[in-house]
Amino acid sequence: MRPDTKDLISLHGSARIGAKITLVRRIIILGSTGSIGTQALDVIRANRDRFDVVGLGVGSNRDELARQAAEFGVSATAVGHDEAEQLVRDTDADVVLNGITGSVGLGATLAALETGKTLALANKESLIVGGSLVTALAAPGQIVPVDSEHSAIAQCLVSGTHAEVSRLVLTASGGPFRGRTRESLTNVTPREALAHPTWDMGLVVTTNSSTLVNKGLEVIEAHLLFDIPFERIAVTVHPQSIVHSMVEFIDGSTIAQASPPDMRLPISLGLDWPHRVANVGVPLDWTTAQQWTFEPLDEVAFPAVRLAKEVGVAGLTFPAVFNAANEEAVIAFHAGTIGYLDIIETIQRVVGEHDPQTSVLTREGVLEAERWARARAQEVIGR
Length: 383
Fold this sequence. Notes:
The chain is an alpha/beta fold.
């Protein structure tokens, strides 16, 4: 690491990628029965000499939690978000992998930072709704992003200093509706929205990927993690999902991180940053012909990224309102209450009605803003 590299919240520490490992890291996994959690356990299962699971938390799946705890010899477990937060506060660990879905993961995120543990962050919503509440608690290097896009950026940033960064470029697969016009999306069904060409991420996140709300949330996340203004964060559509994101530097050079779409790679870096874990993913085959394409984002058909940037600039509790309104709209869409295009329209209306005079960025302020947004979204949906 060059000595003038700025200590970003995401990761710039004294060790370099690939440095020799000497200690076994004690890991707490929250959301252990979900996609991120089960893949993290795959990584740990294959690397018992490097990782020791000391805590497991789930939303409700007690049977699978018991099976996991027995396999990994874990006695400290939690069911539900309140117990997960307490588990983090009470359990001696080096790393907390927060794989909880939704803003309910905020408590565990704050607990990890307050107790000095490294936070491997897959629960992007807790950072987005918490904003400076989260970043103010974090020491340099304490938050390690697990989203593939932000992990890619963190890896690329090793190539230069904060002052040398021109732009962050997040890639998006484009989801199942890439190339479609806004008008053609009117009658999209829930089943179609869940048919993502690359990732299987659960109902809410997969739907968010189809609307590009997920990419909008990731833009806010990138701003908070890497301290880059929104006008210098771009999105490009890359349907092959091989280049996970890029950093453009002031000399015109662009550094990209490329690998087959497999979350085990960013998860492994999250568990043991800045060290790499061997054989967690299959490398690209450079002996075969392949084609990677990049396309501009259609902001008419998919306005969610533009709206998310506006919300991110507004700050305070506006991102919490954006996220909560979206979650309510997605649930309503899958229940058949509203149409596909109504998801973004609901978010826009609720965000537009949020009063900045009542936007207080405290933990209770975030929770109150979310309660208001959910109630207002339900009213809009009901009409």
